[in-house]
Structure prediction request, 150 residues.
Amino acid sequence: MNVTLAQLEKQLESSLTALEGKRDRVEIVALKGIEAEYKERLFEDGLSTNGSKIGKYVSNWKKKRAQKGRQTGFVDQNFNSDNQRSIQVGKASGSNVMGFLTDKQRLIAEGAENYRKKDIYVVSEKEIDFGIEQGTEEILKIWKDGFDKV
Prediction:
């Protein structure tokens, strides 16, 4: 199928129009991607920001976790899931953000970092890269949808 310059211009214009006003959607998709990778690292894999293990549990805490049916092999930042549930994507001051819903959970996170003397809750480069990939894929979907409408 041959495409004329006029048809190509029309398709490109339609694609660009499709992207207008979609920044919010793209940002949310990117942040949700970051959130998923971030939570997996913290609450399933037990890794700090640089990819090293967060640490090991001291014996009294290990015992408490075992009584609750939690794994005790490595620190995973997940005791009752409050911290995990508190980290969400949302709006703050008109911007899309990812963060803690409560100061209590933020302070617990800061305490863990101070105790372990390492970055745990800082978003990693790998997580940011994954979010960029997710956002880019969403832009391409939107662009393609606009292109296909012509």
User: Anything to note?
Assistant: Residues 125-148 form the longest helix (24 residues). The first strand starts at residue 87 and ends at 92.
